[in-house]
Amino acid sequence: MTEPPKDSQLETIISNHYDLGSLVDYEQLFLGYCNISYVITIEKNGKKKRYFLRRYRQGIKKEEIAFEHSVINHLTKKDFHLIAGIITTRDGKTYVQRFEEGENIFYTIFDFLTGDDRYTWVDPNCSDEDLKGAAVVLARFHNAISDLIPEGRKYEAKISDLLPETAHMVERCAQQAGKTVFDAYLLENTHLIQKTIQHVQRITEEVEYKGLPQLVIHCDFHPGNLKFQNGDITGLFDFDWSKVDVRCFDVGLALFYYCVAWAGEQDGAVHLNKVALFLDTYQNELRGASGIGPLSHAELKFLPYLISAGNIYVVNWTIRDFYSAEVDPNEYLIYLQHHVRFMKWLENKENWEQLEGATR
Question: In terms of domains, do 136 and 279 share one?
């Protein structure tokens, strides 16, 4: 931890907008890719307490923050105990808006979630118990959030509309490709990526798909967004990608994160036993409970395609981030290889049929 200088930006935000006390320590976290995050320690009346402070990514709009915060506040009212509550400012707002370097920048302070960061989204290889715990958390989240009419607005498209946008983005990036190992691999596999996008897009254009249940989804439910303590999950965080979309896309994206192998020659292969375990646990958690209920027959029918869509969703981030930021081509090559190898795994008819069997 670092003792902040008296004129530090963080201290100014806290002293000018909150009644929490005085900032005495802070530590920047480097786990995320988009926002800038800190663990801060504040002292008041001789007692110290930790909080989580987020500086939102550049370009985010006020309406998007209102959407995210309405999700968190709704879950708080529903006694969903795994989330970090929002600390309001003196004037009752959930964020601080500052004009910095020519643009509006937003800050929010949250309660501090205890527990360990046991995994990241890369090669999590979760234990069966942690996998089951995650499935229970996702089911309870969907049940708690199912009656929310969110405030604000999310500007990111639903997955059915994001698929053609991703196809256009891939084509543009391929045309501007440079000479790194990432560029070369993208050019080599552009056709497969576009073919996979078209395959899933056709499914989302079906009338039955358009009738699937929609609600606020987490849209980033990977193992790195959970906190663990001993054998329990103690926290779920990062709701800034949440939006309204079909419920089974959230499940499909989670299955992609939790159940696709990364290691060696198995990279891109699906652990079918993990898919079945996660899905059975999710379904059992919602059977007999009042609320949204388990995935329907129609949702299960589309689920394999939405696992593929989850992969495309993260491909979209991988390629966009590579061409919009200064990143390590070798690191991002690992991500892109993972996505492409999963696409190749799905192309095998026997693999696809086994995946359909695991999701029934």
Answer: yes
